[in-house]
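2 proteins. here.
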Amino acid sequence: MKHYKFGYARVSTEQQNLYRQLDMLTRYGVDYIFNEKMTGTKRDRPQLNELLDRMMEGDTVVIESLSRLGRSTKDLIELVDLFEQSGVHLVSLKEQIDTSTSAGKLLFTLMSAIAQFERDVIAERTKEGLHAARARGRMGGRPKTDPQKIKQAVKLYHTGQYSVKEIEGLTGVKKATLYRNLQT
């Protein structure tokens, strides 16, 4: 039975291109490439799901970088666990990790633990910072936009004489705020 090398490439937006990742995967010698243009934070990624359905014991999944595969460290670890349970190896070209080797498994585990630790420390600092700010009477968040400026921006929009960019420049009201107030 032939074992396949499946490549997986992803960019977050339609404006970005996959060329660099596709070139790296092709140079590595993958047999088939699954690629998609969508944010990694989306749970349902059709091409990744198809890859997961097609892989079999002995196959290898090759990625340009760990950041292209998982939505979070937890998601990445779950995927690698799934690969391991399925007898599928993971190769990350950027991080030079190959889970078919003992050193690759160890390195992946260590990197995952450090990344999770870093996220936890950042979350703790953020909570501490918010608590300290609240203790000083600051509530955080973005400052409210002047309602008069919003009304002016909506009126300018409805005249049809100004682009949204021009309205932003004239009133200081951001595009998202303008559109949100057009819907109300």
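next one coming up
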Amino acid sequence: MVASEAQLLIDLLETHAGLDPDPRRCWSQYVTDRMTDRREDLWQQAAETGPTGKKLVNACERLLAAHGPATLPAGDLVHGDFRPGNILLHADRVSGVIDIEALGSGTRVLDCATLLSAHDITPEAVQMLCTAGARVAGPGALAYYFAHVVLDLAVFVHRRSLRQGIQNVSTLHEHVLRLLNHTDGA
């Protein structure tokens, strides 16, 4: 993902502010539960994927330690799987968004964090998404969501033996370190 694509997606996510489609399906509550009450499950599952998973868990621990606890706001429309493969771009515009079964409430910061996990994202796009996510809910919330996204992704691709996904998990560690550097200055 390049900077021009990131800007299109950030602009789209900004239109989701305040569009709370179903407070009973709240991503902010789900992620908070998964990262606090059930934290050990997700972190252990990610670590059990192998040495790369262990490095990823350690990097996520450092990322969250750098920001402390975060409060995850609600009230926005959240796609829940806002990845480049689920976004249709045509002629410098977003022409569609697919795979919406995870749609719910929460904060659009989750969708920013999901975009940050793309394996082919440029440094400029990272900076833009970090700035946009931090502007909405602060760098701590962005870090919290990002840790959830990358750990969950590592477990997902490992369980399903998705060859390309497993190869790309090693780049998630680099993404965490990059996000740590960007959110420190945000």
